[in-house]
Design goal:
Creatine Amidinohydrolase, about 20% strand, about 20% helix, single chain
């Protein structure tokens, strides 16, 4: 997330690019390693972390395509476990949801993040 997703997202938002959620998810999948194309992970991403020195990357799998959602999705946010990225363009403001899963030596891990972009100021009332 830190070395690939966030810098790319910042670039998209700064330029206010019109990019579909599915295209961004495909970009991330290529960086992580795509089993369909038999292309391994982009080592420029993984070599940035000192905690990944002893990883056998031949045992890394991507169980599902990364999921990217924003309010630009016509159907709204899909919070089901089998959600997929839509072909709608990403919104340049609001909430962006992302989810990436990785499988290593039979163990699965998922990381999901919510990004608030240019949030509106809301007054919270007590009482």
């Amino acid at each position: 997330m830190t070395h690939s997703f966030v810098p790319k997202l910042e670039g998209i938002l700064d330029k206010q690019s019109k990019i579909p959620h599915s295209s961004f998810a495909e970009y991330l999948e290529e960086r992580l390693g795509n089993p369909e194309t038999l292309k391994g992970p982009d080592m420029r991403v993984f070599n940035k972390s000192r905690h990944l020195n002893d990883v056998d990357y031949s045992l890394v799998e991507i169980p599902y395509s990364p999921v990217i959602q924003s309010r630009g999705t016509k159907a709204g946010y899909d919070l089901r476990p089998n959600a997929q990225s839509s072909d709608d363009n990403m919104a340049s403001t609001g909430v962006i949801l992302s989810s990436i899963g990785i499988k290593y030596k039979g163990y699965c891990a998922q990381i999901s993040r919510s990004f608030l972009v240019d949030p509106a100021k809301v007054r919270i009332f007590k009482g």
